[in-house]
Specification:
single chain; alpha/beta; Rossmann fold; Arc Repressor Mutant, subunit A; 2 domains; five-stranded parallel beta sheet; four-stranded antiparallel beta sheet; 21% strand; elongated
Length: 230
């Protein structure tokens, strides 16, 4: 999962970013409305956390641009304005939710998770064959055996499970699982896939993570001989 934080107070942006990174999200930050709008429109994000009072362009302007291009992208607005008119203006501009500063990070995180579930129109459990991932508890099991994953392994597996039976290019995986500030090495996806395979597939008869040669990877319950892209 990849989030965008548009907040001009860098300490606040860093505080929010660290919290979500510790939960396994990839996070990008923008400190003015112009940059925030550009990132939101030109990159794929699962949700945006958007301040109202921003340099160059206001949060209301930014959400107008977002809604014109990406009408279903979840957006939570943040502001120091604790009045009814400000909240109504934010919601009328297209925000899905609204939080007033100061806030407790745990509540912001819970609201983001709720929006992601609502947008996906699904329950909290992802299932592929005997592999189960619970996005609420972040517990992963295969054949009822709990698998202990790192934050990045979890994020990678969640992405693959949300795109089951669909080949994903390495560049696409990088874009969704790592943030813009990541110092990428050419084989970073391959390294993490290898580590993930050791936990998800190694002790089981049927492999679920498949290599799509010259392209990327795919998670599928189909056998290797049935996957024509291999």
């Amino acid at each position: 999962m990849r989030l965008l934080i548009v907040e001009d107070e860098k300490k606040v942006a860093s505080f929010i970013a660290r919290g979500f990174q510790q939960e396994g999200y990839a996070v990008d930050e923008a400190y003015d409305g112009e940059t925030g709008a550009s990132l939101a429109i030109n990159f794929d994000y699962d949700a945006v956390i958007l301040d109202v009072m921003l340099p160059k362009r206001s949060g209301f302007d930014v959400i107008g641009d977002i809604r014109a291009k990406k009408p279903t992208l979840p957006v939570i607005m943040l502001t120091a304005k604790d009045d009814v008119d400000a909240r109504i203006a934010g919601l009328n501009a297209g925000a899905d939710d609204y939080m007033v500063k100061p806030f407790v990070f745990a509540e912001l995180s819970a609201r983001v998770r709720a929006l992601l579930r609502r947008g996906a129109q699904e329950n909290t459990k992802l299932m592929v064959a005997d592999l189960e991932l619970d996005t609420a508890t972040r517990i992963v099991k295969r054949a009822s055996r709990r698998l202990h994953l790192t934050l990045k392994e979890y994020a990678l597996l969640e992405f693959l499970m949300r795109h089951v039976d669909r080949p994903a290019a390495r560049s696409t995986i990088m874009e969704h699982v790592w943030d813009l500030n990541h110092e990428s090495m050419s084989n970073v996806v391959d390294v993490h896939i290898k580590s993930l395979r050791n936990k998800v597939d190694k002790d089981f008869c049927v492999p679920l993570i498949h290599t799509v040669r010259g392209f990327g990877y795919m998670l599928s319950a189909e056998t290797r001989s049935q996957i024509t892209t291999n």
